[in-house]
Design brief:
Blueprint lengths: L16 H4 L6 H11 L2 E4 L4 H4 L8 E6 L5 H4 L3 H8 L7 E5 L2
Parallel strand pairs: 1-2, 2-3
Length: about 100
């Protein structure tokens, strides 16, 4: 996703995989790393809940169901994500789409 996505979440501390130097880690390893650092992971990878067993000890996962990683496709989803962030619990998996 775009690096500047982190600026779309005012009032939240956002770090990218690249910033954390976690590139090259796959879903399970990323979730394990994120569990100790963050409360929520925002991704476009809809396969995560099918490939990983996410429990209440894990971070919450928000999956952006957008046509692409382009800002024009992702930006309309952000207000819904911001609303959802206030109610998420660890282990929750939530899909956010433009529909």
């Amino acid at each position: 996703m775009p690096e500047d996505l982190r600026f779309w979440f005012p009032g939240h501390e956002v770090r990218t995989v690249r910033y954390m130097r976690w590139r090259g880690n796959v879903n399970g390893a990323l979730l394990a790393l994120a569990r100790d650092e963050f409360d929520v992971v925002v991704t476009r990878d809809g396969s995560i809940p099918y490939q990983q067993r996410i429990t209440g000890e894990d971070v919450a996962v928000v999956i952006l169901d957008a046509k692409s990683n382009e800002q024009a496709d992702l930006e309309p989803l952000i207000p819904r994500v911001l609303d959802i962030l206030t109610t998420l619990n660890r282990g929750d998996v939530v899909w956010v789409s433009g529909d």
